[in-house]
Amino acid sequence: MEKQAFLDDVAAKNPAQSEFLQAVHEVVESVWDVYQSNPRFKEAKILERMVEPERVLMFRVPWTNDKGEVQVNRGYRIEFNSAIGPYKGGLRFHPSVTLSILKFLGFEQIFKNSLTTLPMGGGKGGSDFNPKGKSDNEIMRFCQSFMSELFRHIGPNTDVPAGDIGVGGREVGYLYGMYKKLRNEFTGVLTGKGLNWGGSLIRPEATGFGTVYFADEMLKTKNESFAGKTVAISGFGNVAWGAVQKVNELGGKVVTLSGPDGYIYDEDGISGDKIDYMLEMRASNRDVVEDYAEEYDVPFYEGRHPWEVKCDIALPCATENELNEKDAQNLVDNGCLCVTEGANMPCTPEAIKILQRNKILYAPGKAANAGGVATSGLEMSQNSLRFNWSREEVDEKLHQIMKNIHEQCVRYGKDGDYVDYVKGANVAGFMKVANAMLDQGVV
Ligand code: NDP
Ligand code: 2IT
């Protein structure tokens, strides 16, 4: 089958799933030649099977708000691929959540988890629930209702959810409590747990730390480093928070954060107490970054993205398709060296083309943000061992995993003196899963 015919077929089977099709398109573009040149993959229809989730769960999530009114949301879990381990991936609670978004995230997770070298398959889930403006009790009741259905489909050797947008330590706690009550089992069924009940040190920081470790490896290929560099970051959530800390440690200066309302510009750099303030903003459920501008008396640009600011390094850490063609051109024109994705698929395909055409260092989220799920994998290992590793041990393992992912990307993506990290990540991630599927027969 020709590549276009393959993509047309996937599009016909998944109407109105633009984000999912965008993710499939990118992977197929990268792996098609490898796929074509391996007759065993083709005969076993590995790629045709890979784009079809093993199982999709959709369920009603009814709950009662503080006024006593009944609310109804939709819950999902996409169990995409279990060739190399139990389904593994986060839960997203955001009003924009659809089947398409969770299928894109679940699909990406297959390759990302493969790159970590840890035994984890791909999955993702969540709900269109909007945490904005909800009380703590409302969030708890929602999480309990969500888990009262999800619990029958997951388990420490089956499917291990974690956090994503709108799901952090608080939500994982409520979800875990309900799972434990229903199953009467204290087990590592979720990651991102609290430190007193099975969580791992460094997991909260891991995605942001990992993204910066990865960017540092990219910079090293050009004999560059974070020292003295100006860094633009989007988002102000979990990933952005970890990234800001690590950039500071490596001697860089972070000048922006953003939310759905716009971005803030802090010329002096976001460091010290200002980093702790990010946690307060996230916990407030207000969903606005403007609060930072008021607190620290810095400019706030309503409805705009931080990519118009002059920077050496850009780390998009908010959400998908938040950096478009025009933004990419701005970054290039302003002399940006490196764009490393902390979020999942934040750059549009057109933006990626511009960055690559201009030979800017660019790495996709499935490689650069894999530190979060890798540390989830380390949390699972510690749960199985019934033992906790120290902060230094976990951080060292995370750092080593990110270096290893960088090496895999270079191995499969090197094209003359430029590294195509998209191709490198897709091919490296694909090979391991494809070979495992081949070994396991037609299932
Ligand atoms: P958080 O909920 O902690 O933060 C999300 C951030 O993105 C917030 O600043 C949020 O602002 C902003 N945001 C969310 N939706 C939109 C939107 N539609 N428009 C503009 N801004 C938006 O989530 P995380 O930090 O965990 O996740 C951020 C990104 O990183 C996501 O792409 C996620 O998939 C990815 N990721 C997360 C990992 C993790 O371990 N948590 C691991 C790997 C990737 P607001 O709250 O105001 O909506
Ligand atoms: O997108 C991601 O990799 C995550 N949200 C983390 C998933 C996990 O299982 O830790």
**Spans with pLDDT under 50 lasting ≥5 residues?**
none
CATH class of the largest domain: Alpha Beta
How are the strands ordered across the major sheet? 9-8-7-6-10-11-12
CATH superfamily of the largest domain: Leucine Dehydrogenase, chain A, domain 1
Task: Please bin the fraction of helical residues.
Answer: 40-55%
Shape descriptor: globular
Number of domains: 2
Largest sheet: 7 strands, mixed
CA-based gyration radius:
21 Å
CATH architecture of the largest domain: 3-Layer(aba) Sandwich
Number of strands: 14
Rounded mean pLDDT is 97
Ions and ligands: NADPH dihydro-nicotinamide-adenine-dinucleotide phosphate, (2Z)-2-iminopentanedioic acid
CATH topology title of the largest domain: Rossmann fold
